[in-house]
Description:
Oligomer: single chain
Number of domains: 1
Order of helices and strands: HHEEEEEE
Number of strands: 6
Number of helices: 2
Structural class: alpha+beta
Amino acid sequence: MKKHKKQNKKRGFSLIELLIVVAIILIIAAIAIPNLLRSRIAANEASAVGSLRTLNTAEITYNTTYPNVGFACTLSQMAPTGSASATSSAAGLIDANLASGVKSGYNFSFLGSCPSVPVNTYSTYAAPSVPGTTGQRYFCSDASGVIQYGTAAISTCGTSTNPI
C-alpha cells in the first residue's frame, strides 16, 4: 500500500502578483495626480478672483464711509478692527486671512504707491505664491471694478491684461 504524503502548500500571493498590483496602482496614480494638481490650481485661481471681488466691494464701502480719505491704499486699512471701533486705519471690511496678504496660494497687494489724500483710485493685485504650482495666472482690478488677468507679472492693471 502506498502512502500519500500531504503537501504542505501555503496559500497567498506570489511576488509577481504583488508586483503587478503595485504597477497598476502606480499607473493609476500617474494619471490621477496631474488632474488633482490642475484642480488645485483652478481652485486657487477661483479663490483669488473671489478675493479681488471682495476687495472691490470693500474699496467702494471704504470710499463711501471715509470720503475725505478716499480709497484705501493698503490691506491693513480694510483689516479687522479687533475689539475697537472701525476707523480709516482699520475699517473691518475684510477678513484677517485676506488682510494678511496671503490666501489660497496667492499673494495680494496694491499696485503703485499711495498718492496724496483723498485717494481717487486704487489697483489691487493677486500673484501666485509659487507660479506654476499654486496658480498659473496673475490677476488685478482697479476702480472700474473689472477683474483682469495676465500670464506674467502685472505692473499696470489694464495694459497687458485681459478682462475675465
